[in-house]
Amino acid sequence: MNDVKTVLRSFILENLLPGENPGNLTDDTELKESGILDSMSTLKLVTFLEDQYKIEFAANDLEPGNLSSIASLERLVRSKL
Amino acid sequence: MSLAALLEGSPTFAVRAEGTELGQPELAKRSDAVKNRLWQLGVRPGDRVGLRLRKSPDAVVAIFGTLKAGAAYVPVDATSPAARGAYILNDCQVKAVITEETLRPALQAELDALSASPAFIDPRDIPAAPDVPTVHAQPDDVAYILYTSGSTGKPKGVVLSHRNALSFLDWCSSIFRPTADDVFSSHAPFHFDLSILDLFLPAKHGAKLVLINEELGKDPMRLAAAIAEERITHWYSTPSILTLLCEFGKLDRHDCSALRAVLFAGEVFPVPKFRAIRERWPQARYFNLYGPTETNVCTWYEVPGDGSWQTRDTFPIGRPCPPNLSRVVDEHGEDVPTGVAGELVINGPNVMQGYWNRPELTAASFIADAAGRQWYRTGDIVTAEADGAYTYRGRRDRMVKRRGYRVELGEIEAALLRHPDVREAAVVATRDDDWGVRIAAFVSCHAGRTLSIIGLKSHSSSQLPPYMIPDVFRKVDALPRTSTDKVDLQTLAASL
Fold first, then answer.
1. Residue B318 in contact with residue B299, Cβ under 8 Å?
2. pLDDT tens string B89-114
3. Nearest Cα residue to B263 out of B190, B180, B194, B191
4. pLDDT 10s digits, B465-490
5. Chain B residues 245-264 with a CB less than 8 Å from chain A
6. How far is the CA of A29 from the CAs of A35, B230, B334, in angstroms?
7. Do B248 and A43 lie within an 8 Å CB cutoff?
8. B211/B142 Cα distance (integer angstroms)
9. Cis ω on the peptide bond leading into residue B323 (within 30° of 0)?
10. Which of these, B11, B246, B340, B387, is most buried using a 10 Å CB contact count?
């Protein structure tokens, strides 16, 4: 299985930040406040992760704290594996 | 008759939110406290009161309290940057602002910077004030001002009267025939004109109103559960939200059989997306409601129950809502024949009074006919079908609809140009089969500077509401120009 952070980083760069220099997106880049993850892109990301890892998120998994960075998203995904 | 009187006349009206219910007696008492406090602070009939509140019973109380004081309410988005809210509240010179304590400091700092100093009211802590009578507003008194995206970079205020709203509500009563047993949803925020039906129609008929707050409204799984648990009978939202519910809400797990009317407005609903929701909720009637903020809903179409819509690409926007009148005109204001594209213009009691403090813009938004009647120019290009129903074809300007909101691309460009490193900015919108519209921004930077896309997104989210943040940013050395030195938007759109 691919490293979760790598999977998250490539999904975000490809779908939400096309054209961005990959070096600008770090594990700690703020995703919610900066407008990178809005309500619509959050749903796309969640659906992608559910398909990719055959996991299911509950409604309360999607709190802002769990979506604030690649690092926190990785922790959320790993807790479901 | 005024909007405030709707609350007084409906003892069974109740507002539910997050498991608690506020009945009409409590709503009346608490809105009286707001009215009395506003009066004590010097608010008088004809004044404006700003509201920057999250969707909550407090916000409903604040709206009715403001109306009871004879003032107009000016709702601003609590999830948008405070600077945008402060610009709006300063533009219409509010006397007081009702806002939660947590939202106050940022807004007050922005208002201070504009040298505006309205009184503040915390809806959770209203000091007792002497009782004053409810003001019985006249039909042409201003009831509320809704700000929409402005092409020159600043939002503009649409001024709407009690008559405008009450006329629309009378039409709603005749079509939807609500009863005190009905349960209405309130999904749209209070600064969005869909909220007028949500809030005041159940008040008029003594029905229940279920408030859907910002977090719940964006979470399809919990939203689907709420529609089922609350036994909602009347749902009203943008098509985008219905599509989200269908695609991410796991609707097969929820019994939403109480739904009897699903109303959608604000943007085009692609028929394949509609088909999916119709299959999930076959028992409901479906209505496509059309109208800019300036007219609230002014035309309507009920999707026929017999399936004859299946072969269509898009739904018509339908026929005018009586007693409003409509015409399709060419650029000279002359009627065009059936089937020929022209601009839809509207006359009648739903039509706004004008834009706040923008007489030139107001004048440009109306045309007069030979009899001297004023017609509001919607800017929407439509064709009339043989049966009289209109079909939407596009816009005559650079406005687009995204998630039901009006977006002037020029306002996004103006926000991007406020970034210190941005030299030029141009924004184009393209069609997206799934979500209606995608917005792309092209920017060039000043010599010696660099721009990151994350930085541009972050800047945009500090300046603009979430629905106006571009999906795509492209960095270019210089924007392409036409032979007349205008930005070549067609070339930019073609490059996507």
1. yes
2. 999 999 999 999 999 999 999 999 99
3. B194
4. 989 999 999 999 999 998 878 899 99
5. 247-248
6. 11, 39, 56
7. yes
8. 25
9. yes
10. B246
